Amino acid sequence: MASRTTLVLDEKARAAARQLARLYRCSVSEAIRRSVVRQRDLAVGVPADRRRQRSRALKRLFSLFEGNDPVREVRRLKAEDEGF
User: Which of 4, 6, 7, 31 is within CB 3.0–4.6 Å of 21 for a Cys-Cys bond?
Assistant: First the structure.
């Protein structure tokens, strides 16, 4: 459930929030929400459920790439791109 909070930003923080919003291509409010969560993750660490999700995704990637030769794959992709 969402709740509303009012923040008073000085000019430096306001400019930073606007800059992040442009970078993220979102509203200033969304940029601030993302920044709060990111700062929390840096200070406290990534929540356990998020770590488990990332771990499953990484294991899935390993299984998808198992048996593939990365050098050969890059060579093949470069050959496909030569026509462009």
Answer: 31
